[in-house]
Amino acid sequence: MTQTKTWPQLKRSLVAILRGIKPEETAGAIVALVNAGFEAIEIPLNSPTPFDSIRIAVKTAPSHCLIGAGTVLTIEDVDRLAKVGGSLMISPNVDPDVIGRAGTHGMITMPGVFTPTEALSAVKAGASALKFFPANILGPAGITAIRAVLPADLEIGAVGGVSHENFAHYREAGIRTFGLGSSLYKPGMSAAEIEKRAIASIDAYDRIFGD
Description:
By secondary structure, the protein is an alpha/beta fold. It is built from 8 helices and 8 strands.
């Protein structure tokens, strides 16, 4: 097992998911998100020419930001992500080879899990954090039940059906890390609209977790 880095202490533990973004739209979207207060951004690999977009995102964002890929399924994709400067690897599943390869590149890793078996397999593989997906199916209670068998200091994220409108429900379960997709970004959206939605998410997060 290659131990990956631990989940960083972000001011706000929010990951913006830009599924479907095009390279020519990337710089504007990154600026909008960073201006609003996002420090972690994921570009899924089922987007158009995703590695071009990730390269642009890495160059555009401040150096402290986590920029990377989602829907990472192979070690080859991990290597390509490393070549364009990505520091965040998010996958929809638990593949120890993929997690381990990302670890050799010093990446933060967040594989997707839904069951105790998957969650414990990800921990054994050295994941930095876990992405419970789809979170809206498990709900805070379901995630809490599985969390009972996991390391207490492991970062737990909720993704899928999550928006600023239901942060409070997850806080009750001790969850403060979220991946925001369609509630934040949809293909073709302008930078101005992205920033407007991003600010709403940041404001809601600060109200709920600001203490």
